[in-house]
Structure formats: structure tokens, C-alpha cells
Amino acid sequence: MTSNSDSPAPAWQQNAIFQFFASLRLAMLLLGVLIVASIAGTIYESSFDAKVARAYIYGAQWFNVWLLLLALNLIGSALSRMPWKKHHTGFLLTHLGIIILLIGSFIGHTWGIEGTMTLFKGEPPTNLLIVDERVLQISEDEKTAQVVPLEFINRKPSPENPRPLATTASGWNIQAIGYSSSLEVKMEAQAAEKDGVPAAHVTLSTAMMGQKLDQWLFADESHDTFDLGLASISFKKGTAPNLTPGTAEAVDIEESIFSFANSPADQVAKTLKGGSTGAKIKLADVTQGNDGKLIVQLHGNEQTFDVVTNLGKTVPVPNSPYELAIDQYWPDFRIKDGKPMSLTNEPNNPCVLVTLRGHAVPAATQSEGNAKNAVTIFTDDKGAMTYQLSSRKNGVSTGKLELGKPLTTGWADWQLLVDQTLSRAEQHFVARPATNGKSEGVLIRAIHADKTIEQWMPLGWQISLPTQPKPMLVGYGLKQHPLPISLALTNFEVERNEGTDSPAGFKSTVQITGINGDSATGQCWMNHPISFPDSWLNTFSGLTYKISQASWNPENLSQSSVQILRDPGWGLKWIGSLVIVAGIFSLFYLRPLPTDVELANGARTEAKAANTKRQTVEV
Amino acid sequence: MIFRILIVLLLSTIALKAEPLDFNQWGLVAIQDGGRRKPIDTFAKETVLRLSGRTTYQSDNKTWTSNDLILSMLLETHDWKKEPLILVGYKPLVEQLGLDGTRKRFSFEELTKAQTLLTLAQQARDLEKSGKDVPRSLKEAESVVSRLELFNKVAEGSVLAIAPPATGSHWLMPTELSDSYSEASFKPVTDHLSALAEAYVHGDNFNFNLHSSQLRQTLRQLNPQLYPSERMLKLEYFYNHVSPFDWAATLYGIALVCLWIANATPTARASLFAGLFCAIAGVLFHGGGIALRCVIAGRPPVTNMFESVVWVSFGVVMFGFAFFLRYRTVTYLLAALPVSLVCLFLLRQLPVAMPENIDPLVPVLRSNFWLTTHVLTITLSYAAFALAMGFGHIVLYRFIKNPTAAASNATLHFWLYRILQLGVLLLAAGTILGGVWANYSWGRFWGWDPKETWALIALLCYIFVLHGRLAGWWDQFGLAVSSVICFCAVMMTWYGVNFVLGKGLHSYGFGIGGEKYVASFVVLDLAYVALACIRYRKSHASELLLQAEGREVSA
After folding, report:
1. Taking CB atoms and an 8 Å limit, are B2 and A335 in contact across chains?
2. Does A42 reach chain B within 8 Å, measured CB to CB?
3. Residue A577 to residue B126, Cβ atoms within 8 A
4. What's the 3-state SS for B158-208?
5. Do A619 and B470 touch (CB under 8 A)?
6. Are B346 and B309 in contact (CB under 8 A)?
7. Fewer Cβ atoms within 10 Å of its own Cβ: the N or the C terminal residue of chain B?
8. Do residues A547 and A529 lie in contact, with contact meaning Cβ atoms separated by under 8 Å?
9. A125-139, A424-438, B70-84, range with the lowest pLDDT
10. Model confidence at B504, in pLDDT bands (50, 70, 90)?
11. In this model, does residue A493 exceed pLDDT 80?
């Protein structure tokens, strides 16, 4: 390697162990394995998840050993060049930079803290950092809690292969005996002995889209509605209101309607006085030379008028309080210069304008966008059910609802069925593995003498186990790490891309209080973290809490998640990075390359070319 | 009131034989779509591309341009629900839906009849919501359903946000004008709109253009502050129609042929100059197109796959020129031009996988400083390695042709080595800059995210190669071979992480498609390398290299 050095190498450089650590052979081995391992890591991450990749590769002990070896190799190869000459600068800088970077990473990894906090506007400050490690928390009384790490990377527990977790003070043995990535948590009803509210099990199904949804509804304040997005179902005590007309007062009504033969559904109505008549006007049978018929639908009552004979006249509509005037007719309707007119006499786009006048109760306004698809199911004291159904298409209707008999909703082909009711029920949650479950969870077994309790624990839940002598509170969730600073969200803003709901940026205003009473308010948004304490030295060295905007909840705009990082290795990572880049630059571009000059001058004899090659590859 | 009628008028179905219309004025009307104000010309192009995977549509008797098609859909002059317009690009999905497997495009009616489609798309959305992996066929079903939804929106006119609002930032559809303006102020708009609709229906080109241009003026008068300037609208329209990257590709092609002739016959000076002229002209188009996109978008042009391919192919040619000027050899250009050509060709071939749209940035990328420093540096390193890959092909070609001559040509190897150096420097700097940026936006320096990891893998591969050369494990020939093979790691970083692995934090660049092109490229390349290796082994040229070294040592 140092074939050019004039004096013989000192003894320590000839030591076999030193030569092994300084060897290019070791460097190649280290690099080669790093490449293969990293590739494997990304494949693991793609086919499983980031945690698996971390457990087997990036976070594994052997990987750290490997990086340590790499550092030793870099130091060794640097020392093997001693005494250093000027042309070694680039090489030394590059290798030194990598060593500094590795030391920085080691410091950050060992003494650094990283996690997230979810903050809510208006809530008191919190200092609990959520670290991405799963734990089981077991408490038998309010004061003490046992926290056991509970991650599943390679071997998932099963009833045959339980994983022992803890033994509590009162002698219960806690084991994990199962894991599911798809748990379904459902609220179910069970008969209550006292108190309790009426409950109904509602099933909604569509044959067209092959979907079926079901839910228990309780006639109380908080669990009485099942919101599907496109429709909602609620359950209440009482009976459905009677919808017979006549309760409202009759007023003078005047409404004009444009109707088009080519698009009967698109009539354009305008109320001039009182309210809507609720009439549907159809223009039919328009052919050349015949101006067709007008069909007027009013509350299910249908009347036909001839257009030609009635044009310009006012005629009463039989069986209704209205009279009808056919004001205008255009065979080929167009708007020209802002005025309606007929382009030709061909019935290309026949249109008619009518006015209805009368003294009557206005029809329920069925403005298209406002009416929501909804069903309210009522249950009276005796358990008899009635419903009030509103559909965007068909308006509002009411009726009796029988157990086990499907109700056609009129929302596409959805059918609603109440198949089970309880007059006095209370809620309890049931978690079980299901194909489309939304959360992951672990199956816990608690054993004491001859008693065994098993319970699925969804992630983020705390459940009380019916242990003796006292019930035990068990929670499965992410590890919490108390920080010496506390955070409170004072404001959260979302900026949107113009004309859309997609976010262009989010900004949290956070009040930070340190354990020693220091306090600061800062704003963080993407690419703009807050540093606390924010002196220049702290920020650079990483001896600060860096608070970055992490994520948000589109459904709750007073909530914001921030990421908090304290990385004491940050300064070394920075310096190392700069040194590496400077090193590579000087290695490639600052060393005198005689070959460059010679080649530019066109000196290309074979011997010189061979010489060139030799020198360019010699670092 | 009048406006409701107007819209009904637009719904009326009249199809008259039209004289050829041009859309020069209509295309300049501004619209708010996808979080940005743009000319309707861009909107039409993007919409038709999203629906059909092409920018024009060929019906039985007519070629529809995108503007024509969109306007026809809005005015219902043609029964578009029956035209096989909508792309279903994934064959297994076509078969799963029970449709004709030989076709790629289907009509709205055919697809809405396929019941399973909605179910599959719903499954995809559910999986996405719960943060799980979505299988390819479900993903494709979801994108087909979003095409159907887009079709519906266009057909019912609910995308036509062409009127600036009096207050706020949500633009208005013509039907909503009465909500924020008095009838007197919006009446000119509706008048011109109905007049241009009528002119369109009757194929009256003069009035169509006249009223389109007057429509634009009246819309601008509603709120001149919000309306994009005439200059910006025209600039984007110009960009849409000049297709700078196609011009660049054509010129590069011609330049390549000329330079190749010049290289084979050193006396052909005219050919050399013609080639250089064409290459420079191509660079001007290429760079001009990038500059236009920058001006239109107001940010560096490296935020999606399309832009990064354009930028990298530009970088390849620029580096080719830089090295050409430094070392006075057209070999660099002969290496750069084909690489750039292939990139630009792929853009034309895969308009769905790499859409040309200029979209608003996701929040994490909103930092022009880091976008410029990190992304431009890292993509320039891809460009350098792409150039090295092209150059490696030339070196290998020389070895295939005449192994001994190639082995003794040290200059050639030195030239390649210089490119590799540039790539290593840029990739190392770019990766580290990425770490610094990640510390700002994600709160950590390095997190073994697949994109980060693959950038590191690519860097380690090249470093491995350079150190292996030092250790004498391989010679100059090995360097040429590895400059080709290591580029696979770069492609994995650049394309594979986003399109094959599809995991990690760099999700704003994710997409699907193009696997066939990339896979066949890799396979062909490896075969080429294998051929070169066989030739090299048989020729004993390696001994010659050793001899050369031996002579140097003894001297």
C-alpha cells in the first residue's frame, strides 16, 4: 500500500493484527456485507415493515459491531499511511469524516431521545413523549404499574407457545398467547339487570355492491347514531312524528317552472310567492307540427293538458287548489343575448314555461343538496318500533317497522333490517380477530391457581380484567417517556391548496415550559422546527429539544402531532458530513493530477498512458 | 335564473357537423383545478390524459384534441358514455372484471356495468385508510374508479371553476356566479359563454374564438387580482404546445448520428459541426423547457418522476458537454446523447406512470432551499452515473470489438474514471444534504428509510468498486463493467424505491408502471456485459494490462 514511502515502516505498522484491521481486504468485506445487508433491509421493509428490518438489520447487535469494525478499519488504514504527507489530505479527511459521523450516530443512538407527542388545543401541557415501542402496562392498584415491553418481530406467541410477561404482586401470571394485526373492536349490547337503555341491532345490506354492515344502537345520547357517511341511522325513544299534511297553514303560492322535453328530470322551478307547489311538469309527445302534452304531477295526482289548446290561457288543475297557466312554448329553445328564444321551428329542444297559482300549504322543500339520507328508528315503551325515513331522492316518509322485516331505504338498493332488540341493555366492547379489522392487538392470558382469564387487547386500549381480589387494569400501547419539558398547543392552522381540501402546510403554535421554569412560545411547520432552548450553541450541538411538525388529523383541527428529538450527536454528524464532502472533493479535484495536464496536451504515448493509469488509481 | 337555463341549454343534445375549430382562445381561459390556476388548455390535456392515458382520442370518424373532447363532454354534443375512452391499463384487472382482454380502453357504460369494480375500489380505499398494503389489482381498480368519477364530474360540469370569486380562494363554476356577483356584473360572462357554446356546436370558428377571448376578458374583470396574468396563461399555453422535450429528443437523435459518423471518419468535419450544432440546439430546447416549467410552477423542476427524468437527462447532456470541453473528445457526447434520448423516449411511452402535470407540492417538499440543494444534487449524481453507464457501454463495445486495443487505451479508462469521481462526490453530498434536510422536516438525520438506504447502497457500490480497483481485485475492464452494473443500484434508488418497493417516507414520488421497460433494460444490459466479459476473457487482454503495470513498476 505504501510502496512509495522511503523509510521502512515502523514496527507497529508491521504488526499482524494492525495490518488486519488496516487492510483493504477487510474494508472490502465490510463494505460488501453492508451493501448486501442494506439491500436485505429494504426488501424486509417492503415485504413486512420497518420494524422487522430494524430488528434484523439496522438495529441488530451484529450491525453495530459491523459499524464498529468499519470505524476501526478506517482508523487503521489512516494510521497505516503514517507519516502523513500532503497528498494524503483528501484521503484522511474522508476517512476522518466517516469516523466522526459514526461517533455522532453512536452518541445520538445511545443518549438521544426521539418520539412524538399528540397535542390538543386547550388541553393542559403534557411532558409525556410517546416512543415507538409497544408495552403492556399492568396495574393492580392506582399507585403502581408494571410496564413490560411487548413487541412481536419474529416469533408470534400462540396458546402453545405463550410468552411470559409478568407476575403481579397478588400472584397473577400474565402471558401473551396470541397476536393479530387485524382486530375488530365492536360495541355490543348485553341485557342489563338495572338501568340500561333500549338497544337495537341494525343490519344494512346492498346486493349491488355486495356489502353488509351491522351495528348495535342504543337509545341514549352518545351511541344512538350509526353514520355511514352517505347516510345515517339513529335510534331514539318515542314514536315517529305523524306526517299527515294540514298542520301547516295555507298561503298564496305562485311558482313558475321551465320544463324540457329532452331532459324531463331537469325542470327549473322558481318560487315567486308563498312556497313551492311540489309539482312536477313533464312535456311529452312533441313531434313536428304537434306541440305535445303537458303532464302535471301534484301529490301523486296526475293531470294532462294539451299545449296548443291551452297556450296563453289559465286553466284550473282538477283535484288541486291550483290553476295552471302555460305562458310560453319554444320548439328549439336557446338563449340568445340573454333572452330565451326559439332557434328554429324544429322540435330540437322543446321547452315550456308554466305558472301555477293557488292558495295551499307549501310542499316540503326538497332542495337537492340539503336533504340527507337518514333513518330514525323510534321505540316506544312497549317496544313497538316506528321509523322516519328521509332520502335525497324520495323525500320523507314514516311507518311501522317490524323486527326481522327489511325496509327498503331508497338509497341505491340499501336495505335496512332490525333483527334483534333489547329493552334494557348496556354496552360492552368485544375485540376479536376479523378479516377486515382495523387495529392490531395481543391476546393476554392471566392465570392464578385454577383461574384463567383471556382477553384480546387492541392497541391503545385499557381494559379491566375481572381478577380477584381486585380487578386488574391492563393497557397495551406505546411507551411513554417523561421529558423535562412540557408542551401545550395554543394554535393550529392548516393552509390549503387553493380551491381544494388538500393541505399546503400545517403550523402549530406551541407553548414550551422547561423544568427549571424557562418558557417559550414557538411556531413549527414543515421544514421549520422549534428549538428549545434555542441558543445558537444548543441548536448546533444538538443539546436541545427539536420540535418538528409531524402529522395532523384532518377530522380534528385542534389536534396536532409533533416530533421531538434530542440528539447530542447532532454536532458531530454535521461536522463529519462536511468533512466527508470536503475530503472527497479534495481527493478527486485538489490533488495534482499530472495526467490531466498531459492528456490535455495530447501526450498519449502508450508508456505514458500506462503510467497515467497507475497514478490515477493510486490513492 | 337565466343561468340555470343556460346550463340546461348546455345539456341539450345537438350534434352538428363541425368545421375544424381551433382552441387558441378557449384554451387560454383560466381555470382552478387541482390546487392551482391554469389555462383550460392544460386542464383539458391533463384530464384527457388521466381518463384515457393519451392526450387525443380517435373516434370512428374524428381525432379529438383534448380541448375539443372536454368541451364536447361539457356541452354533450356526443354520447361519450359509449366511447371506449377510459383506460384500464392493468390486464389482470380487465380479466377480473370479465371484460375483453385484448382491449385497454373501455366505455363509461361498460365499466359502470362491471359490478366488481366498485367493490374492489372500495376494498382498496378501506385498506388505504387502515394503513395497509394495497395489492396491485385493487390499486388499479381504485384508479379506474377515480377515472369514472372524473368522467362524471366533467360530464356534469362540476369541474368548471373558471370564475374568480369576489372573496376567498375557491373559484366559482358558472352556475355559482349568482352567489357572489350581481346579475349585471356576471351577465356578460354568461352571454359570452352561451354564445361560444353555440358557436362551438355550429362549428363557427370565428365566433367561437371571439367569444372565448371576450369570455376571458369578462372573467378577468370580475376579480382582476385573482385572475392569472395574460403573460402567464400564454406562457403555459405555449409550453403545452411547443413540446420542448420532443424537440430536444429529435435534435439529440440527429446529433448522435452526425457525431457517430464524425467519430468513425475523422475527416468528416462538417458532420462533427452539424452534430455539435444539433446537440446544442437540443440542449437549448431541453433547458428552455425546464426553465418554462420552473417559471410556471415557481419552484425547482424536480418534484415528481417526470421532472426528475427530464432533469437527469438534461444533466447527462450537460455533463457530457462539460467533459467534452475539458478533454476534447466526442466520446462523452456519444455516451451522453443516447442516455438522454432513452430517458426522453420513456417519458413519451409512459405518460400515465410519469404524468407531466404541474401539481402543488406536498407540505414536506415546500422548501425551495432544500429542494434545490438536496434534490438537485442527488439527481445530478444520478446524471453523472448515467453518463458513466453510457460511457461504460462504449468502453465495453471497444472491448468486444478489439480487446487488446481497448485494454491498452488508458486515456479511455481515465475518462470514465473522471465521471465516476464526479458521481461519487455528488451522491455523497446529496445523501448527506438529505440527512440534514430530514433533520429539519422529519426531525432525524438518518432513519433507514428505503430511499435513504438505497442512496447509501448505490454510494457504497461505487465506493466498493473504486476500492476493489485499488486492491487490484479488478482492472480497468472491471471498472467499465461496474459502471454499467452499479447503475442498477442507482435505478433502484431513483425508480425502484418509488415504483417497486413503494414503502417509506418519500411517498410523494410513488407510482406504478414501467416495470417492463426497466426490467428488459436491465436484462439486456447484463447480457451485453456478459458478452463483453466473454470476449475479454478469451482475448487475454488482462495480461496486457498486467504487462503495462509491470513495465511501470520496473521502470
Report:
1. yes
2. yes
3. no
4. CCCCCECCCCCCCCECHHHHHHHCCHHHHHHHHHHHHHHHHHHHCCCHHHH
5. yes
6. yes
7. C
8. yes
9. A424-438
10. low
11. yes
Instruction: Give the residue on B whose Cα is nearest the Cα of A36.
Output: B457
All residues of chain A having their beta carbon less than 8 Å from the beta carbon of residue B37 are 498
Considering chain B, what percentage of its residues have pLDDT values greater than 90?
A: 46
For residue A95, the chain B residues in CB contact (below 8 A) are: none
ipTM, 2 dp? 0.84
**Rounded-to-integer distance, Cα A55 and Cα A567, Å:** 21
Distance CA A503, CA A226 (A): 28
**Which residue in chain A has the smallest CA separation from B359?**
A497
Quote the DSSP letter at residue A500.
Answer: S
Q: Which residues contact A469 (CB under 8 A, 6 or more apart)?
A: A170
**Are A546 and B198 an interchain contact pair (Cβ–Cβ within 8 Å)?**
no
Q: Is A599 on the interface with B (CB under 8 A)?
A: yes
Strand locations in A361-471, DSSP E?
A: 373-379, 385-391, 395-401, 407-408, 415-433, 439-448, 451-458, 461-465
Q: Which residues of B touch A270 (CB under 8 A)?
A: 1
Whole-number Å distance between alpha carbons of A342 and A363: 32
Q: Are A124 and A131 in contact (CB under 8 A)?
A: no
Instruction: Determine, for residues B421 and A600 on separate chains, whether the beta-carbon distance falls below 8 Å.
Output: no
- The mean pLDDT value for B226-233 works out to 93
Per the structure block, which three cell numbers stand in for A581? 464532502
Which region holds residue A50: left if phi is over 0, alpha if psi is between -120 and 50, else beta? alpha
SS3 of A331-370: CEEEEECCEEEECCCCCCECEEEEEEEEEECCCCCCCCCC
pLDDT of residue A364: 58
Instruction: State the DSSP H helix or E strand holding residue B477, giving kind and residue range, or none if neither.
Output: helix B476-485
Chain A partners of B2 at a C-beta cutoff of 8 Å? Answer: 335, 338
Helix (H) / strand (E) containing B20: none
Q: Do A527 and B9 touch (CB under 8 A)?
A: no
Give percent of chain A with pLDDT exceeding 90.
15
Write down the mean pLDDT value for chain B. 86
Are A431 and A410 in contact, with CB atoms under 8 Å apart? no
Q: Measured between alpha carbons, how far is B452 from B428 in angstroms, rounded to an integer? A: 11
Task: Flag if B1 and A270 touch (Cβ within 8 Å).
Answer: yes
Indicate the pLDDT class of residue B291, thresholds 50, 70 and 90: very high
Q: Which amino acid is at B438?
A: A
Query: Are A570 and B445 in contact (CB < 8 Å)?
Result: yes
Is the pLDDT at B194 greater than 70? The verdict is yes
Is residue B4 very low, low, confident or very high in pLDDT (cuts 50, 70, 90)? very low
**Which residue of chain B has the CA closest to A503?**
B363
- Asked if A500 lies within 8 A of B476 by C-beta distance, the reply is no
Residues of B with Cβ-Cβ distance to A505 under 8 angstroms: 363, 366
Spell out the domain ranges in chain A. 11-111+572-617, 115-127+481-566, 142-242+371-469, 251-360
Q: What is the dihedral of CA B70, B72, B74, B75, to 10 degrees?
A: 160
Min Cα separation B327/chain A (Å): 6
Chain B neighbors of A617, CB-CB under 8 A:
417, 469-470
Which of A497, A570, A612 lies nearest to residue B35, judging by beta carbons? A497
Name the residue of chain A whose CA is nearest to B554's CA.
Answer: A611
Which DSSP symbol is given to A591?
S
CA–CA dist B196, A397 (Å, integer): 45
Could you give the percent of chain A with pLDDT greater than 70? 88
pLDDT, residue A609, reads 42
Contact B502 A46 (CB under 8 A): yes
